[in-house]
Design a protein that fits this description.
- The protein has 19 helices and 23 strands.
- With 472 residues, it is α+β, with helices and mostly antiparallel strands.
- The chain has two domains: 236 residues, Glutamine Phosphoribosylpyrophosphate, subunit 1, domain 1 (4-Layer Sandwich); 187 residues, Rossmann fold.
- A seven-stranded antiparallel β-sheet has the order 3-2-4-1-10-9-11.
- Strand 20, helix 14 and strand 21 form a beta-alpha-beta unit.
- Helix 10 packs antiparallel against helix 17.
- The protein starts with a strand and ends with a helix.
């Protein structure tokens, strides 16, 4: 899962992209990058770290051009943070810059074929060469030829992708996979046009949200300002439910639904299943769970209070690159507010429980003070791996797969009680047709043969070992 932005403006837009990336920082903390076209060449600045660490006023001033794309990265494929940072650029046969959010399940099929021209282990660099190959032989590019290349790309790539690209001397391209698994929205500011992973980026840049791109849709903005849009390979939408549950910012809108209002509804649906529960206090795990905890508290008529305080200088532990880094961060990330939880029956609300290691630590922190801790998850049990951009591709790591039943999970988390959202409650709260709930029910949008799953798990395990060495 990553964050992407693309802008076609009337003036230099690198500072706009920078502001947008700051708003999308929650989608990736590993690295950041911006590529601009200055009418002569594509200029690129990227590096490891947060947006504010990679960019300065001085290097942003050098990124001149009316067209630019940007990226923040959270690794789900690749093992070398410096080399895997995006955007990626090719110069031959046409200069193209590429930024990608999602996971190409079958990228390993092409990795060896392009090994002589790639430097990273990232699926995005492979996808860029594949796309460039589809344009090979086209001396004079046109928008229609670009769309033909996108359609050919869609027919070959299995997985999830929202992509923005700079095409030299022609304009900006944006497209979304045939199942619209990863989010991509369109915005306007006068005659300026932008694409982003979430609408919150538009708020930061002063753009108005227009709409979400459709499943299998591509859009191209020429330097002249002409906008082209075409649905190339539509299939049934399968939007990732985890965007609403955890990943997206609460002030974003996706598929016409307010993320904040969905999280309130998730809490209320969970509260319906807990109507007989009467704890002393409802406590959210900051920050994602706050709206859901509020909705749950209202539903069961118990006060919600801030019983856990988050250190604002610690990033999102779920998207940190290794389990060790997540656990180290958790030790300094949260602290209890003693008067709120001391000797109380606490209902602790979290957005989801994935591996269980973080949840167990949080329960332990609260139990040092509380009389009892009942943990409630706004997401149903995650029992299946995700191959589409959320970094849990290894089923054996999932606590709901390990333990099989809720009681077993409760014991493993050392909680006094445990309640999960129902799948029906999740769907009702999100209120969007065509959700991907594969990690909950095993119903994947695309076919993933067992041999391919094993190959992906093996590759990700190997990549993680390399990342652990890098961060050791």
């Amino acid at each position: 899962m990553c964050g992407i932005i693309g802008i076609m403006g009337q003036q230099n837009v690198s500072f706009d992209v920078y502001r947008g990336l700051l708003a999308l920082q929650h989608r990736g903390q590993d690295s950041a990058g911006i590529a601009c076209f200055d009418k002569v060449r594509i200029n690129l600045k990227k590096g490891v770290g947060l947006v504010s660490e990679v960019f300065s006023d001085a290097n942003l001033a050098l990124l001149k051009g009316r067209a630019a794309i940007g990226h923040v990265r959270y690794a789900t494929a690749g093992s070398t943070p410096k080399l895997d940072s995006q955007p990626f650029v090719v110069d031959i046969p046409h200069a193209i810059a590429f930024a990608h959010n999602g996971n190409a399940i079958n990228y390993l099929d092409w990795q060896s074929a392009y090994s002589d021209r790639t430097e990273s282990c990232c699926d995005t660099e492979v996808l860029l060469h594949l796309f460039s190959e589809k344009l090979n032989g086209e001396k004079h590019l046109t928008v229609e030829k670009v769309f033909d290349a996108v359609q050919a790309f869609m027919k070959e790539v299995i997985g999830s992708y929202a992509i923005v690209a700079l095409v030299e001397n022609l304009g900006i391209l944006a497209f979304r996979d045939p199942h619209a698994n990863r989010p991509l929205v369109l915005g306007r500011r006068g005659s300026d046009v932008a694409f982003a992973s979430e609408s919150v980026a538009f708020d930061a840049m002063g753009f108005d949200l227009v709409r979400d791109l459709k499943a299998g849709e591509a859009m191209f903005i020429e330097y002249s300002g002409v906008v082209h849009e075409k649905i190339l390979l539509p299939k049934a939408p399968r939007h990732c439910m985890f965007e609403w549950v955890y990943f997206a910012r609460p002030d974003s809108q996706l598929e016409g639904k307010s993320v904040y209002e969905v999280r309130i509804a998730l809490g209320k649906e969970l509260g319906k299943a807990m109507k007989n529960q009467k704890p002393d206090v409802v406590v959210p795990v900051p920050d994602t769970s706050r709206p859901a905890a509020l909705g749950l508290a209202e539903q069961i008529q118990v006060p919600m209070q801030e019983g856990l305080i988050k250190n604002r200088y610690i990033g999102r532990t779920f998207i940190m690159p290794t389990q060790e880094s997540r656990e180290r961060a958790m030790n300094v990330k949260l602290n209890t507010v003693t008067p709120v939880v001391k000797d109380k029956d606490v209902l602790l609300v979290d957005d989801s429980i994935v591996r269980g290691t973080t949840a167990r630590k949080i329960v332990g922190v609260v139990k040092k003070e509380a009389k009892s801790v009942h943990l409630a998850s706004t997401c149903p049990p995650i029992q299946y791996p995700c191959f589409y951009g959320i970094d849990f591709p290894i089923q054996s790591e999932l606590v709901a797969y390990q333990e099989k039943d809720v009681e077993g999970i409760r014991k493993k988390l050392a909680a006094d009680g445990l309640t999960y959202q129902s799948l029906e409650g999740l769907r009702k709260a999100i209120g969007v047709s065509g959700l991907c709930t594969a990690c909950l029910d095993g119903d994947y949008p695309t076919s993933i043969p067992e041999a391919l799953r094993n190959k992906l798990e093996s590759a990700r395990t190997s990549e993680r070992k390399k990342v652990q060495q890098e961060y050791a």
